[in-house]
Amino acid sequence: MSLITESILERINSLIVVINTSGKVEYVSPSAKRILGFDPESLMGEGWYNLTRNNPKDRKQIKKFVSDLLQEEVLSDIVPQERILKAANGEDRWILWTYSKGLFNTLIAIGQDISVRKRVETVQTTNHERLKIQNKEIWDSLRYASRIQNAILPSLSEIESAFSEAFILYKPKDVVSGDYYFFHRFENRVTVVAVDCTGHGVPGALMSVIANSILKEVILNKRIAEPSEILYALENELRLALNFENNSSETYDGMDVAVGIFDFEKHAISYSGAFRPILLVRDGAVIEFDANRFPIGFYGDAKKTFVTAKKDLKEGDCFYFYTDGYNDQFGGEKGKKFTRRRFKELILSIQSMSMKEQKSFLKYALRNWKQNEPQTDDILVLGFRI
Q: Across-strand partners of 261?
């Protein structure tokens, strides 16, 4: 073989091995020195099997494989084989082999060194498995958090006990939600609160847990029974909980809140909202209880004022507490928001239905509007019939 050919064979990133009909190696390309660290001469005969494999079982298997190939007349159907060879320094080298027949029925094996690629694949596989485990742990934690969050929410049967009919439409954008509702009955008074916390998912859910704790303190322990005073108390308690005064960086954590207190002895409702209105449908018309234009939580240096509105109750009145998730859902033919106007029109159009049927229709209308768009935000709609 010429010096030029030897020089080329030494530099290529492939091994060339020729095996005679007896299964003995009679040629190994000079590149074996660079790839495996062995002198080609040491790999002749049985050296190829003995030096590149430490395991006797592996040696036996490769000899059997070679013997079978030597008996084949045509090797066109043989799929390339990935095999591990042991280098002189003890490292593993991945080689991708292809086979053909040479003169006198010899077997020619050409192996490409794919060790770098295999190492990358191994790292990717390891990282993928690690991510799968981490992802499972995250989802398990989220599902557990969802169970905890659902446990603090009032049941439908509890709410129905205070009204002629009721429904709860509650659809978190993620596993857990930043939307939250609160219900408390004391003597002839029923307090209903709908809360839309900053964000959704885990941050929103954490805020909802804080909201639950604060509402229990304000309504159950402190017995505050005026909606606007409840909002002022929420503001103060949230500032304490989030340490607003001592936090040098601006934080936008907060919540929009609708508070309604139904007094069934006086047949009246008192209401106050922080950025969240409520709807009343009476005698075929939608009446909106406007919210105060301040949220609970960070709002610059604005001086907040919360006012309570009051209205007598009539039999058949339907009230709706809701967050902005339904109105803000993108969809329709032009991919725009559903809007408050459409929501009020939809609410008015379903008044002949029972509350259970209203919930089903609201879900249907939402799916029909959303189509293939992702859910934009957490969704909460509470409906009550007096």
A: 191, 270
